[in-house]
């Protein structure tokens, strides 16, 4: 996959992630980000790893919203991006397809940089 296509796909994911964060305003759960997760396949370590990452990401995205769109976006996207990084690391540990592994490497690199940026942005504003 060309870098421009990967970046375009990542931008779409960011927009969709932002929409998911916006859907949660005023809700006590992570509704709107998909149906409740199904239990991992019994005995399948990879499925369990993905399920654990997914569960943690959803718990961590369930933040109290303040009405400050910028801060709420950053605070919600940090665990969303961390979930993507954690999923990509599962692929790097267990995946075999070179194209998907390359995408997973790019996800780790770009999403970790964005997590750092958002944390620094929040810290500079005392949030």
What is the compact description of this entry?
With 127 residues, the chain is mostly helical.
Secondary-structure topology with pairs:
Layout: H1 3-23, H2 45-61, H3 69-94, H4 98-124
Helix pairs in contact: 1-3, 2-3, 3-4
Helix content: over 70%
Radius of gyration: 15 Å
Please report the number of helical segments: 4
Quickly give the structural class: mainly alpha
End-to-end distance, in Å?
Answer: 37 Å
Overall pLDDT, averaged?
81
Kindly report the name of the CATH homologous superfamily of the domain at 42-127: Ferritin, core subunit, four-helix bundle
Number of E strands: 0
CATH architecture type of the domain at 42-127: Up-down Bundle
Q: Briefly note the CATH topology name of the domain at 42-127.
A: Ferritin
CATH class of the domain at 42-127: Mainly Alpha
Q: What is the helix/strand order?
A: HHHH
What portion of residues belong to β-strands?
under 5%
The description of the largest β-sheet is: none
**What low-confidence regions span 5 or more consecutive residues with pLDDT below 50?**
6-32
The dominant shape is flat
